[in-house]
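Lecture 7 notes. Example A: sequence first, then its structure tokens.
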Amino acid sequence: MAEAAGNRLALGYPGSLVVSGAGMLLAGYVLAETGLPPWLALALMVGGFVLWTLLEYLLHRFVLHGLWPFKAWHELHHRLPDEPIRIPLAFSVPLALVMLMAPTLLLRNVALGAALAIGLLAGEIIQEVVHERLHRGSAGGDLSDKGRGWLAVRRREHGFHHTQDARRAFGTLSGFWDRFLGTAPPR
């Protein structure tokens, strides 16, 4: 039941990028109106992207693998990894709103918050694109790529997460947080 409701109210890739993309455009407009020095804006955007990698790890590990109804929706992705990835609006809209508003509230500055939000939202968009590529980038969605580059390592670790141990390898863009927090797959 939760799976059906989640899939009816979901956007499939690449349409799923619209929510975060709209948030990025809004934050960009706000940032453009603030007069924040470009070097500071860029530094905050990079910081937001790095923060996204931690947020992505935490969301994947504790929300998508731990909290209903998100867990039920995510289990469908694990059972059918070759199906197009769909992001429930009940997940993507609140996430985008939090990434838009929380930085400003925490930093108590609209300009700084907008720049950080752009980095967070860009990270989410890049993560979705990479996640799609991990599943569709090789023939038949083969997640066991034997190459040595960054994408090959990400594909291998994501494949491990899907096929061998869903309690490990939560990072899509990076394995850093898995190594740091003890959930990296064995080498």
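Example B, a different protein, same format:
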Amino acid sequence: MTGQESTEVLIVGGGIAGCAAALTAARQNADVTLATKARRPEDASTWWAQGGIAIARGDPEQFKQDVIEASAGTADPAAVETLVENADEAVRDVLVETLDVPFDTADGNDEDFDFGREAAHDEERILHVDASTGSYVLERFLAFVDDHPNIRVLDDTAALDLITHEGQVRGAYLASEGDVWPVFAGATVLATGGVGDLYPDSTNPSGSTGDGIAMAALAGADVTNMEFVQFHPTVYVDEEGTLLISEAVRGEGAVLRNAYGERFMPAYDEDADLAPRDVVARAVKNEREISGEVFLDVSEIDFDGRFPDLVEQCEQRGIDWESGIPVTPAQHFLCGGIDVDDRGRTSLDGLYAVGECAHTGVHGANRLASTSLLEGLVWGLRAGEDAVGRSPQPMDVPNLDDRDPALPDSFAREKFTRLRRVMDEYVGIEREPDELNRALGVLRRLKGEVDAYVRTRTSRSLYELRNASVVALLIARAAADNDESIGTHNLVTETDPAAVESP
């Protein structure tokens, strides 16, 4: 293990939430270290956010109502108010004025943004850049933090464990290129993204292993709402992986059809193709089981004119989009996570969490479209501001044990395959109580096996596997403990007609 380091604010994660925290901490002249596993911008979840970022547009009450209704009434009203009351100013200050993100405008008028609409939104309020909003935001944000004199960026650097002392978090062990070292911090901000690697098909980038949630939980932080895993209903999947077809496409008027050519969403929900994501995802799954296939019909909209980036990606993948885009649900977002307050503070002193790894209360049981970038931005700014002013407290810490020979590369791959199979079969869109208990048994054994290896070996891949097994167990346990079907947590039985019949 190499020598130790100190910083006032340590941020783990380089998406919009981590960058926002770095921005506000640096604005107060704090010494900031930002460590990210990413080697390229594409390795962060923010990059893949297509639809855009929602704002209140001067009507916070309607925005609040839409967020709460999409959550099946389970969102925390105080958290939603924090989100929407800060939305317009945060976007104006950071994305428009500081980063100069080139949001689409109407008729080329720079003063008139071209707002889009997505599922479960009552009005057009989504700022976007074609269907590639996240990449435009993140490229500019990363360039900004890279150039800031108060921010040191460490890429290709993973956090392995938090450093704790008597209920206080004092930093983290970092790892890069085989080296492991402790970084002590006055405040540590986790912004590690989602859990896509726990499922076979996900819209998340590779490496989304729930690191922040696992490290926080193992350190004793409160974690909540882990059963609420959101699946995006319109994802194209082939041997190359997943291609998310933005909800904005349905917002423009595209509709879902089954293999018989029937438009089916009006039979499932009065909002039809613009129903909340959990409703549409279950409907798509059901129709695929009944008819064999589901397509997104874009024939009645100006698809190539409105979404040129998506058209290019479709053509690169050989998709004949004019005949309909084959779609299926895929894991997309975790609505639960590390429990935090309105400043991103966790239950452990000195530890903050922002972005997808955090549970702010905004999303409840189901997230409203185009609120993830906004939540990461708002809570990142607030956490970064609050984290400043605490001095690091270095201490004697043990080396992470690495006395046994390294495991073969196939070890982690094989364990991940087993984990994903269990999560896909038993902890997916629809769940049965008996199967959840079966999943718990398998996941407990898997975690026990991985823990035994972690005790005597230190490597990034092994710790990622440990983190994934911890988070998978947290999700399955929360799902088994919740006997109420709501939002993304959908319990079914063999006699439940909704699970096997079309409406």
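Note on Example B: The radius of gyration is 22 Å. Confidence is low (pLDDT under 50) at residues 495-503.
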